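Tokens for chain A. Residues wanted.
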């Protein structure tokens, strides 16, 4: 299996000089194309920090991150922005939807921001609305949706570009168990049908059971 992500000797700390906390300590990891990986560990173990570094939302103190063989630390801002916009999708615990936009407008937002013509993407929109079960909610606003429906909208927005990688930070952490199960089944379907590589931070063993592999972090190091 070809690796889509390779991390080499990654280190990250926070704080001021003389009083810094090591959050990631010499982490190395390879993720194959199409894998569904869960990152687990106690609070403060470095899970979310690792995810944000992978997404280019933060920079490491040292080490390398390769996406499709490219070192993202050597990318220009424009290249990194394009990778985040088209090559990666992001899903967070809090849905981060735009409250004054409808479901379909929230989903289409990445295309709008990229200057794409919406009429050229109507079929793609209809397909993703069907996949996430929101076809009948397309004209609704976020405050008219349940938490699970809002998260499904956020997932649809994250995959509208059909990215190679989906990064999810505690995607069920703000949901009841039934909605959480529905979200995990949706992730699994996206992984199986689209071949999108998924890295998910979770505290839940039930959620991690949907993944191909579980990686456990403790004090900034990989245990398994």
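Reply:
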């Amino acid at each position: 299996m070809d690796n889509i992500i390779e991390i080499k000797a990654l280190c990250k700390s926070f704080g001021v000089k003389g009083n810094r906390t090591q959050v990631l300590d010499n982490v190395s990891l390879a993720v194959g194309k199409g894998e569904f990986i869960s990152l687990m560990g106690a609070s403060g173990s470095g899970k979310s920090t690792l995810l944000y570094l992978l997404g280019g939302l933060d920079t490491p103190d040292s080490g390398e991150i390769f996406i499709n063989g490219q070192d993202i630390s050597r990318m220009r801002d424009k290249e990194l922005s394009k990778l985040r916009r088209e090559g990666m999708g992001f899903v967070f615990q809090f849905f981060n939807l735009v409250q004054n936009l409808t479901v379909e407008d929230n989903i289409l937002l990445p295309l709008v921001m990229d200057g794409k013509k919406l009429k050229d993407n109507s079929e793609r929109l209809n397909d993703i609305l069907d996949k996430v079960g929101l076809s009948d909610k397309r004209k609704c606003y976020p405050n008219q949706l349940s938490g699970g429906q809002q998260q499904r909208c956020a997932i649809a927005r994250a995959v509208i570009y059909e990215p190679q990688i989906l990064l999810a930070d505690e995607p069920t952490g703000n949901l009841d168990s039934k909605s959480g199960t529905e979200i995990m089944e949706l992730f699994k379907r996206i992984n199986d049908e689209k071949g999108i590589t998924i890295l998910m931070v979770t505290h839940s063993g039930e959620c991690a059971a949907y993944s191909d592999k579980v990686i456990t972090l403790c004090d900034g190091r990989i245990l398994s």
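The first strand starts at residue 3 and ends at 16. Strands lie at 3-16, 19-32, 36-40, 62-67, 70-71, 88-92, 165-169, 197-201, 213-218, 221-222.
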